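Operator note (shift B, R.M.): manual run for 1-acyl-sn-glycerol-3-phosphate acyltransferase requested after the automated queue skipped it. Running by hand, logging everything below so the morning shift can see what happened. Input copied straight from the record, untouched. If output looks odd, do not overwrite the archive copy; leave it for review.
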Amino acid sequence: MLFLARMLLMGLHFILAGVLGLLLGLCRPFNPDNSRLCARLYSLPALCLLRLRVKTDVKSLFTQEQACVVIANHQSNYDLYVLGRVVPPRTVSIGKKSLKWVPFFGQLYWLAGNVLIDRGNARKAKQAMLETTETLRNRDTSIWVFPEGTRNLGKGLLPFKKGAFQMAIAAGVPIVPVCVSSYAGRLRLNSWNSGRVLISSLPAIPTAGMTMDDLPLLMQRCQELMQQCIGQLDQQLAKA
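Run finished. Output pasted below as returned.
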């Protein structure tokens, strides 16, 4: 019964947040800080409705003095609510072009200045990546990417795709990994308290001076650091 009530309230919240976010986007279209505000709009009420406790340690994410590429593990659709509370100022994300057609959410996602990529069209996808590189270099705007490219369902990191790391090297900006404890499939949505999630950001990894020859080692380093951090977060929750 509690699960059904929660899902109904979450559905209503999704629509309301979408409408408010769309109005914000229409008032100041493509402002790069729209993403942060819309993320909070979705996240904070949802975490209260779910009674999901999220503890964060993301100092390195909010003390960046220049644009960066933020990479995070992608577990489920609930990432919108879990990670929405830690999106830093002037940060946009990369998403599938098909998101544009999701009622309310898709339109505000586009108006928030996020980058929509047609993954089925290599030429357009490459052009979008070049635009994000220019954004990182010249517009004081960071890019948030899920380097796995799809949801891992809380079963461990999937192999990383190259795009985020190519952007960082091309723009010469640091990479900031954000790690979320494994929660997908473990939420108790029919209980009063749905569970606990830990979020931690790692120190920035510089890419200045790197070339594409450094790409494989950079990807491997980031994946190993994130896997280790996620394991530590899971251990903390297990001991609590």
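Quick read of the result: The first strand starts at residue 52 and ends at 57. The two ends are 28 Å apart (CA to CA).
Leaving this for review. - R.M.
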